[in-house]
Design a protein that fits this description.
The complex is a heterotrimer. Chain B is built from six helices and 15 strands. Chain B is α+β, with helices and mostly antiparallel strands. The chains are: A alpha+beta, B alpha+beta, C alpha/beta. Chain B: Keywords: 2Fe-2S, 4Fe-4S, Iron, Iron-sulfur, Membrane, Metal-binding, NAD, Translocase.
């Protein structure tokens, strides 16, 4: 199958490795594979939010498992990105209450404003719009996920503000 | 322990599954199995073809099971009563599963090497419907090259995962697995790696459909035009039994497979040397013709004795037809530069 | 005012922190259980309470605990299911975000009852910030001596960790969750064996929902009998309801089971009535998987009795005229909502979330979505309604896990109660061109067009 061949610089820093080792310590010594999901999150966050094949191979090596075991997991879960994504990814919830409360109009609005279609990063790599399934915030619809956080009760004005805040570097993506 | 399947009673050992018990009885009550493989641990339960109705749980707890259960993974209980062929509910469920398996299947049997020994064909023959209700676009996958010995044709795959178990249980380093999820689940190496292992060829034998076929046999012949023979050799590969079925056309070995039983499971796994590298008759000790179940299409060509000339006493030449119709056409002699309506035909445009 | 058990202290400033939580009486259940009770006594109290699993299935929690295999001598585990992903449900997140120590306390007391020395909270990947909140709360609890070796000098050891998921609804199914916790794809396992015998790493394991575990401290502090005194019949205690859709007050409410649907919908304490003056059209009372109810079956059952917020009353009438309490995802629709569009939306969700392991779900969910998409977009055929009915009936009950059922039920219920709306979409494709087609012209106003055509 087609895979992205864009090179990714792999940098497992000391602090990242310490965090990985801490995560591994949460499981019995012979159950290192259990740490796979949390480790993938940490590694992805530290590498521009995507996981190249080389990076996945590195994770396999750290956990002492086969590369295919990592590929199987990465492709099963939706939060692991297998290609470079926009720095600020607006992941709109499209299910149930969000759909009922006009999320589709908001997605159209955002795409139009950024001049992109769904799932394609802007030319400068700053933004990307994606539709995802229920994020568990139905009472605060319409909403989206931006980095580790939720942006709720959205409307066009809020979207404008968020885009501006992203451009101004006011948005924190990860809670470290 | 005693179980009754479709009214036929049998004594089984504790730990026997309903499917195994049914296979011991044999005949029409044996549920079809597309994912279960008795020689591979952990298979079964996924395809849902082998659903049966447990009408009596056991002697101790006679309540029927509310849902149909997968017979390949459900253990027998003493006094259990099961309806398989005899249950309309089961027939309905198997029909449903067959339809689900076929909606996204390419139905390309005419060009599929598995045709004739395909479990999905057999299942459709038994439980399929003539009409199509699926009018949507079929799901397709990008082709992936997994080496020069095995052809992966993902569009035909039913995700039984037997091939993954083969890699896990017969080889030491699995490079392929199931990627993605839902109806996009696919068998893949993710990085187009060659699946290169002394026992990788067994993936072909365990595949119930034409998703994994022998590249060295690709498009060579329909399976029913081959004559299967049991043969063996002294194989030095550790773990290989060296007992195979040779598929012959005249004196030529078209392909080599493991020996499959009446449930289409291999009797014993073989190595890639036996499968791919030993294609000379001199490599093998031929034991004799291989028997197949009587309704198998492979029996089409199972005439092992020399064909006698048949003489029919009838009006002279009636079966010979006209001489003009019997003229042989040689493709090589056709002039591809011929003209239609005076215009030369470009061989490129001519396909 | 209804009684509050879980959200009693939610408005206390700083209740998120260990200090305030402890000052307000937190961790008392751990002290009581570890010092004064045997594990079996805790199990007995939970059994007496009649507490039912709050994740959706409603299986009695105490009974589930009593199934755990203690004879094998293998290590036992308690795993908290915080993979809240059922559309319409957001209660667990609220609990974990605003009063995280309640869950930690519940985990310690419950782990003690089960004899588990290594327990996990499995939280969905999207709740990343809540994951960090829980990690900090666990660290605080550990520093204060509530976790680790020889807790309170009782000789009981417990290690508790949070595990983050990767984005997969199916991991809310307990065996898929265990697979995911082991670092695998979230494919549900075949049952039997049940997790109580062979769960996490083949060890005996109990998987419980966040709300279920968070209720245990109150039961231990008071008594199972006190808990059972709240509610009606087999629906004991309180329940968190996630209310969303076209109502005035959206959010999480704690109700005493047995309050009427009418009161819950209309009282200012809860939903506060409809958002606008548009009339109520339909209700999904327990998350996207449960059957949708049309207006005339919401406040009254088919038998004419008041519909109550209990497991029994909501399912009164079976699937023909009832629904289910499920996970308490209460989604209200007014007449702007299009049932066909909503059903398609749910089907897309299940199609997207199917793990792909077994045939009926893998192939059937996609088929359902495609047919519904055609109908919603004016390309439906009359025979498509029968086709949908047939597909859903062939998925239901034939799959490994309940996702197949969950994908079938909303489709079946929509056709059962809103068939005319499907017919309208099929017969008047021009009228459903815009996705908000019922906003300007609600179905009630055009219903006669379909009725006329019936021969």
């Amino acid at each position: 199958m087609e895979r992205s061949h864009i090179k990714q610089e792999i940098n497992i820093t000391e602090s990242l490795m310490a965090r990985i080792n801490e995560l591994i310590s949460h499981y019995p010594a012979d159950k290192k594979k259990s740490a796979l999901l949390p480790v993938l999150h940490e590694v992805q966050d530290a590498h521009d939010n995507w996981l190249s094949i080389e990076l996945q191979n590195k994770v396999a090596e750290i956990l002492g498992i086969l590369p295919i075991e990592v590929y199987e997991v990465v492709t099963f879960y939706t939060m692991f990105n297998q290609r470079p994504i926009g720095k600020y990814m607006f992941e709109f919830c499209q299910t149930a209450a969000c759909c009922q409360n006009g999320v589709e109009d908001l997605m159209d609005y955002t795409c139009e404003k950024l001049g992109v279609g769904i799932g394609e990063p802007t030319a400068d790599g700053m933004f990307e719009v994606r539709g995802v399934e229920c994020l568990g915030a139905c009472g605060y619809a319409p909403m989206m996920q931006l980095g580790d956080f939720y942006q709720e009760h959205l409307n066009k004005e809020k979207i404008d503000q968020l885009i501006q805040d992203c451009k101004d570097g006011k948005i924190t993506l990860h809670d470290k | 322990m005693k179980v009754t399947i479709d009214g036929q009673e049998i004594e089984v050992a504790p730990g026997t599954t309903i499917l195994q018990a049914a296979r011991m009885i044999g005949g029409e009550s044996v549920p079809p199995a597309m994912c279960y493989y008795s020689k591979l641990k952990g298979t079964g339960g996924k395809c849902r073809c082998c659903l049966v109705d447990v009408t009596k749980g056991s002697e101790a707890d006679p309540r029927p099971m509310p849902k149909l259960v997968a017979s390949c993974v459900t253990g027998c209980q003493d006094g259990m009563e099961v309806a398989s062929k005899k249950s309309d509910r089961v027939a309905e469920a198997r029909k449903a599963v067959t339809e689900f398996l076929l909606i996204n299947h390419p139905l390309d049997c005419p060009v599929c090497d598995q045709a004739g020994e395909c479990d999905l064909q057999n299942l459709s023959f038994e439980h399929g419907k003539l009409q199509h209700r699926f009018i949507e676009e079929k799901r397709t996958f990008e082709p992936e090259d997994i080496g020069d010995k095995i052809q992966l044709h993902m569009n035909r795959c039913i995700v039984c995962q037997r091939c993954v178990e083969v890699a896990d249980q017969l080889t030491d380093k699995r490079v392929h697995g199931v990627l993605n999820r839902g109806d996009h689940s696919q068998i893949s190496t993710c990085v187009s790696a060659a699946i290169d292992n002394e026992f990788s060829g067994n993936m072909i034998d365990v595949c119930p459909v034409g998703a994994l076929t022998d590249k060295t046999f690709r498009f060579k012949s329909r399976v029913w035009f081959n004559k299967p023979f049991n043969a063996h050799r002294e194989c030095t590969t550790p773990g290989c039994c060296g007992k195979v079925t040779l598929w012959m056309f005249g004196n030529e070995i078209q392909r080599v497979t493991a020996r499959k039983d009446e449930f289409h499971e291999v009797e014993d796994f073989i190595c890639n040397t036996c499968r791919f590298d030993k294609k000379e008759v001199a490599d093998w000790v031929i034991e004799g013709p291989r028997q197949f179940e009587k309704d198998s299409v492979i029996n089409q060509n199972k005439k092992y004795d020399t064909t006698e000339k048949v003489v029919i006493e009838t009006e002279k030449g009636i079966l010979m037809g006209r001489d003009v119709d019997r003229k042989k056409i040689s493709m090589a002699e056709i002039d591809y530069n011929e003209k239609i309506d005076g215009n030369p035909i470009n061989s490129k445009n001519n396909g | 005012m209804g009684r509050k058990i879980l959200l009693d202290k939610i408005n206390v400033p700083g209740i998120k922190t260990y200090e305030v939580y402890r000052r307000e009486g937190g961790y008392a259940s751990v002290e009581k259980a570890l010092k004064k009770m045997t594990p079996d006594e805790v199990v007995e109290e939970v059994k007496t309470s009649g507490l039912r699993g709050r994740g959706g299935a409603g299986f009695p929690a105490g009974m589930k605990w009593s199934f755990i295999d203690k004879k094998s001598g293998k290590p036992r585990h308690l795993v908290c299911n915080a993979d809240e992903s059922e559309p319409g449900t957001f209660k667990d997140r609220y609990l974990m975000e605003y009063i995280p120590h309640l869950l930690i306390e519940g985990m310690i007391t419950s782990s003690y009852a089960l004899g588990a020395n290594l327990s996990y909270i499995y939280i969905r990947g999207e709740y990343m910030w809540v994951y960090k909140i829980l990690e900090r709360a666990i660290a605080e609890a550990k520093a204060a001596g509530w976790l680790g070796k020889n807790i309170l000098g009782s000789g009981y050891d417990l290690d508790l960790y949070v595990q983050i998921g990767g984005g997969a609804y199916i991991c809310g199914e307990e065996t898929a969750l265990i697979e995911s916790l082991e670092g695998n794809r979230g494919n549900p396992r075949l049952k039997p064996p049940f997790p109580a015998v062979q769960g996490l790493w083949q060890n005996p394991t109990v998987v419980n929902n966040v709300e279920t575990i968070a209720t245990v401290p109150w039961i231990v502090n008071n008594s199972g009998a006190d808990y059972a005194a709240i509610g009606i019949g087999r629906s004991t205690g309180t329940k968190l309801i996630s209310a969303s859709g076209n109502i005035r007050n959206q959010g999480v409410f704690e109700i005493e089971l047995g309050v009427s649907v009418y009161e819950f919908m209309n009282s200012d304490e809860y939903c506060g009535g409809m958002q606008t003056d548009r009339p109520l059209k339909a209700l999904v009372p327990g998350g996207s998987s449960v059957p949708i109810l049309p207006a005339h079956l919401i406040y009254k059952t088919a038998a004419g009795e008041d519909r109550l917020m209990t497991y029994e009353s909501l399912s009164d009438g079976g699937f023909a005229t009832g629904s289910m309490l499920g996970s308490g995802g209460f989604i209200v629709y007014d007449d702007r909502a299009c049932i066909v569009r909503n059903t398609w939306n749910f089907s897309r969700f299940y199609h997207h979330e199917s793990c792909g392991q077994c045939t009926p779900c893998r192939e059937g969910t996609g088929w359902l979505e495609k047919v519904l998409w055609r109908i919603e977009n004016g390309q439906g055929r009359e025979e498509d309604i029968e086709l949908l009915w047939s597909i859903q009936s062939k998925i239901e009950g034939n799959t490994i896990c309940p996702l197949g059922d969950a994908a079938s039920w909303p489709v079946a219920a929509a056709i059962r109660h809103f068939r005319d709306e499907f017919e309208y979409h099929i017969r008047f494709p021009e009228k459903v061109k815009n996705r908000d087609h019922f906003v300007a012209e609600p179905f009630e106003k055009v219903k006669h067009l379909v009725a006329k055509q019936i021969v």
